[in-house]
Predict the structure.
Amino acid sequence: MEKRLSVIRAARLAGVTRAELQSLIKGGQLASFDGLVEVDDLLRLYPETRLADDRTLERVEQIKAEALGKDIAGRSLPDPQVLAQRLARLGTQLTRTRQQAEHYAAVLESLETRLRALEKSQDAETRAVVQDIKHTVQSALHERRVLSYAAGSGLDGGSWWMSVLAPQVRLVPDDHEFLVEGADTILEAALRAGLSIGYGCSNGNCGECKARIVSGEVRDVRPHDFVISETERAEGYALLCSVAPVTDLVIEVGVARKPEQIPVQNIDAKVREIVRPGPHVLVLKVQTPRTRRLRFLGGQYARLQMGEDAVEALVPLANCPCDDRNLAFHITENREDPFAVHCFEQLRKGATVRVEAPFGTFVIEHEIERPLVFIACDAGFGPVKSLIEHVIALDRVEAMHLIWVASGAVGHYEDNLCRSWEDALDHFHYRPIRVNAASDVDSWAATLAGSLERIQDPGLPSYYVAGPERFTDAVRELLGRLGVSNAQCRYQALPPRPVARGHDGGDAIAG
Ligand code: FES
């Protein structure tokens, strides 16, 4: 059984985020070898870790699920055939381990017999050496027993149950890791982990999710019409939207890191819900067909078109790309804007909304090493929410700060959500600020400067700023005055600037 664990598994077992363990590794408190940590070291730092009990894990997942609005109830157990196959493999592994243990026991017994014989020696020096060897062996055996007991596992402190319920997948060459839980396919699990791998229909028809399994075993769990040739099968190719892992896997597949790597898609979606979190703002929730999901990166925006008059607008996506079917948009009241008027007065549940997306470059750098500071003004919270949820799904950032400036009637309309993030995540800090809409940008900037000064973070942060153009301009100037380099900042002015029609990816902003 394993004595070393990957960081992602160790974090799940200890009930902490991967970012927290990475910070300990960086600080030298936790040793890591080739990306693996020792079970013993993990137990010393987190004595409460229960390698054979998932209660802590469940609790943390529950909190995160509530904070992020994710449904974990629907993915409790893997497909029965897959589970049976994983258990059969575990049985084989257990038998091998038992045989190994019996062999070691026999070796120990013979060693003991020989040591007993040597103990009878007349030579005092030999007797001392024998005593020393016996003592060393006994201490090593005792220490092993204590650690196994602390782990609450009869199986040498290994995370055997996790390999059955949540096999690990590593994507090469980019080296991303995630766990596949419940009845998820590999594609679903990758998306939940915030990773944008290539796909189209999610339904086994288009072949765009085809990838090579470098090591490990998978099993078909969803029917698919797309045919993989025998030669490709022999080379290890599989459709990631149709298979689940039987064992831990290494898969060769690219992960989109930049907006230009994701094509613009046109999808007819339906209004699922219209929520009014405040008198002057609404959250529009639309659902795509099961076979036409929207692939995008957190923070990007869409062109929405609806109604008999085909009113349209560019609106930021306000949900995590890990939920590619249930899209959210935050829209503020504006009597001058026909699109906003239509949304507030005529739009009904079930109406069709044409979604053309994704556009924009307000996205998270994939190699996130710095702390992140998000600064939103009013409905600028929409794209920032999308970014934050994407970052939480990626689970790589060690510190996040959100400053939400509410300038008038719109208010902090999702204040409870921000507070639940802060409660659930040790590394997330939230500061709501209220300013007078009538006051000038200089007084906004002064209030914001005070909040930025209070952020005590030793790292060099990256800044993500979204809100009305006069706000993003003011923050740009402020950050410049504070000595923050432009390379550390990304801005999304609202409404987004028009995009060229027929755009096929790349820089989405026209002219
Ligand atoms: S996404 Fe179309 S076959 Fe998998």
User: Anything to note?
Assistant: The radius of gyration is 27 Å. The chain has a mean pLDDT of 84.
